[in-house]
């Protein structure tokens, strides 16, 4: 199994930039696995900015839902894969399962287990970016509370299996493991 | 005075699990002092899950408001006491005093001082679990802002008197003191 | 260039108190550069409490918007300057530019660059206090999301240029740099 590196942090904490720097240390070419869906102008703009920043060494693949499959397909195609980010993937899954009236939490945790299984079998190192979302006041919105629970549980599972774990605070990475 | 260990972290950051592991290192029997009130299905479910996870070594006591008294009654009855969690206790107190039209902040900070005094006199080690609630956007709701202030001040007082302090991030405890 | 120390943390995390302790190690007199505008009772009360705590060694200057100019005017007038806090300054700027229908984000980031330029030229050491606001659930309010982005970017720029960086958690400072 190749190395898994897990990076978490708040919004605009510099986690994506730090993840890109770590990935570049593995050499080129690199695979960028984006979970963002550019559904509105705000997100389209952000996706474009990030892509410009990364430059030519990167191949970008967009996959909002089937992350394990996409990750497996990236295996062996470059020096490292960067998954950015888990929190948007979980959010995409939550809306996907909610729309289909399925037990979203159970389905998502099953998808997360599939992801950790895939990560364990990768021959290419993977850098996984996630977000801290549970350090504010308890949200009044029940869906937001469920999302916060799912995101926290997922972060715990990924950090537990990762070889290295960092939290970015004000742009500065702090190594936790 | 026996050791006080203070553990903070965001929602679903693995702080309760880490607290239970620390407590078990003191041996059995152990006392679990729960501040949660199972007022709705969401909370009942969570309380049940946590109790199942802990298993037979633990005696569970539920006390939503009079935490110092309950803690003093636990003294000497086991190898360690786990208080989970301070944030729910503060939330219970806030609603309790608000309903009675009392100066909630003053009453609560008096209760917190009573708690730290009780902690200083315990012969049994106590592990106290709390939450980080102040790292999001300023809440629009005034009561939420007051709660955030009370929770932060209480965390400071408990961390200052504790012998060891940890923050859990994505399931990984980081020692602060 | 004199030393720049950057301190971040959540609400009521003990960051102002720690910043004051650090400042006092430089000796007296000290300059306190407050960005708070006491527009309501809640804030007036807080400003008054903080001022009482600081005591006589401090000269207080209030400047909600033109922080770089105020900072430059403080240069050389004391042993250290404490700026408290960046997040309120950014919030003041956001409302200021929004009211004038200007491109708030661009204007603010220009002000932030001016601030870092001023910090680089200071002969007096400066301690800058900011806030972590991006570790909760994504705010539903678009202005709050923009503010969160601006605050995170600003924290990154200030932490990158600072000689020392700390995050306060439950009153305990953790050195990041």
Word description of this protein:
- Three copies of one chain form a homotrimer.
- Helices cover 47% and strands 20% of the residues of chain A.
- Chain A is an alpha/beta fold.
- Chain A has a single domain, classed as 3-Layer(aba) Sandwich (Rossmann fold).
- In chain A, helix 2 links the parallel strand 2 and strand 3.
- In chain A, helix 3 packs parallel to helix 5, helix 4 crosses helix 5 and helix 5 packs parallel to helix 6.
- Chains in contact: A-B, A-C, B-C.
Summary, kept brief:
The structure is a homotrimer. Helices cover about 45% and strands about 20% of the residues of chain A.
Which labels suit this protein?
177 residues; 7 strands; nucleotide-binding (chains A, B, C); 6 helices; alpha/beta; Rossmann fold; homotrimer
Strand segment count of chain A: 7
Q: Largest interface, per-chain counts?
A: A-B, 30 and 22 residues
At the fourth CATH level, what is the homologous superfamily of chain A? P-loop containing nucleotide triphosphate hydrolases
Highest-level CATH class of chain A:
Alpha Beta
- Straight-line N-to-C gap of chain A: 18 Å
Shape of chain A: globular
Helix content of chain A: 40-55%
Rg of chain A to the nearest angstrom? 15 Å
**The number of domains of chain A:** 1
**Spatial sequence of strands, sheet with the most strands of chain A:** 3-2-4-5-1-6-7
Classify the oligomer: homotrimer
Order of secondary-structure elements of chain A = EHEHEHEHHEHEE
Total of DSSP H or I helical runs spanning 4+ residues of chain A: 6
CATH architecture of chain A: 3-Layer(aba) Sandwich
Segments of chain A where pLDDT lies below 50 for 5+ residues?
Answer: none
